[in-house]
Design brief:
By secondary structure, this protein is of the alpha/beta class. The protein has 9 helices and 9 strands. Helix 1 packs antiparallel against helix 5 and helix 6 crosses helix 7. The structure holds S-adenosylmethionine. InterPro entries: Meroterpenoid_MTases, Methyltransf_25, SAM-dependent_MTases_sf.
Length: about 240
C-alpha cells in the first residue's frame, strides 16, 4: 500500500522528499523544542497552519498528541498530495483540517479571502521543506507573507535541506537557494527589517542521518549537504 501511495504522489510531485520517503521520517518530532511546539498547539483555540503540507505528516503527529484537527489549516499547490495523506493515515472523516489549494508564491495573502481567518492569527506555522524551494527573492517574499499571518508569540518550525556553502541550485521546479546558518540568519534579518517585526531565530545544523536518512539516500547529493532544523519565534 505504501509503495502505491508514494508512486501516486511521485506522479504529481517529483521532490526528493517523496521519492526518498522523507514524509515517513520523524521530522519535527525529533526536535528538542517539540514539547514547546506542542504546548503552542495545545493553547486554547490555537490556529495551526502547515505550508506546503504534502501528505501532512506533521499535522498527524500533532493530532496523535490530541490537538483538534478542526483548528488546523493546510496549504499546498498540489491537492492530490493532501488527498493521498488521507489514504496513508487512514483518517478521512477524522482529519478535519481546512485545505487551501494555492500557489503561495502567487497568492496575495493580504487580500485573498481564503486567508481571512489566518491573517495575524496563526499560532504555529509548520513549513518543512517548503520556503527553501524558492530562490532568494522568492524566499523573502514567502517569509514576509508568513509574517503577515503571524502575531507576537507565533512559532514557525520545520526542517529544510541546506549546504555548508550557501548557494543557488537549479532543480526541476525552479531555482532554489540552499542555506547555511549564516545565510538563513541574513535572510531573516532582512525579513524582520522589512516587516518591522522581531523574531528569535533558532537554527540547528544537523546531518541528514540525524533526520533518519541513510547513506544510499544521499549518494546523489553534494558532499556539503546538511539538514537545517529551524524554530523562529515572534517576539514583537
Ligand atoms: C518538498 S515537499 C515538502 C512536503 C512536506 N512539507 C514534507 O516535509 O514532507 C514541498 C511541498 O510544497 C508544495 N509546493 C511547492 N511549491 C508550492 C507553491 N508555490 N505553493 C504551495 N505549495 C507548494 C509541493 O506540492 C509539496 O507538497
Amino acid at each position: 500500500m505504501y509503495e502505491n501511495i508514494r508512486t501516486q504522489a511521485w506522479l504529481v510531485a517529483k521532490y526528493p522528499c517523496i521519492g526518498l520517503w522523507i514524509f515517513l521520517l520523524p521530522g519535527i518530532a525529533a526536535f528538542p523544542q517539540f514539547p514547546t511546539l506542542l504546548e503552542t498547539a495545545q493553547r486554547l483555540q490555537a490556529t495551526i497552519l502547515d505550508l506546503g503540507c504534502g501528505l501532512g505528516q506533521d499535522l498527524r503527529l500533532l493530532a496523535v498528541h490530541g490537538i483538534p484537527t478542526e483548528r488546523m489549516w493546510v496549504l499546498d499547490i498540489e491537492a492530490q498530495l493532501w488527498r493521498l495523506g488521507y489514504q496513508l493515515f487512514r483518517d478521512e472523516g477524522r482529519m478535519k483540517a481546512t485545505f487551501i489549494n494555492a500557489d503561495f508564491q502567487k497568492t496575495c495573502v493580504a487580500e485573498d479571502d481564503r486567508f481571512s481567518a489566518l491573517r495575524g492569527k496563526v499560532d504555529l506555522v509548520l513549513g518543512s521543506q517548503f520556503v527553501h524551494l524558492f530562490d532568494w527573492d522568492g524566499q523573502i517574499a514567502a517569509s514576509k507573507k508568513i509574517v503577515g499571518l503571524s502575531k507576537p508569540g507565533t512559532i514557525i518550525a520545520g526542517i529544510q535541506h541546506g549546504r555548508k556553502q550557501a548557494r543557488n541550485h537549479i532543480r526541476p521546479w525552479g531555482t532554489m537557494f540552499y542555506h547555511n546558518r549564516e545565510s538563513l540568519m541574513q535572510l531573516w534579518d532582512i525579513v524582520q527589517q522589512q516587516t518591522e517585526t522581531r523574531w528569535t531565530i533558532d537554527i540547528s545544523v544537523v546531518t541528514l542521518h540525524d533526520w533518519g536518512m541513510q547513506d544510499e539516500d544521499m549518494e546523489w547529493m553534494p558532499e556539503d549537504r546538511m539538514g537545517i532544523n529551524f524554530v523562529f519565534t515572534r517576539e514583537s
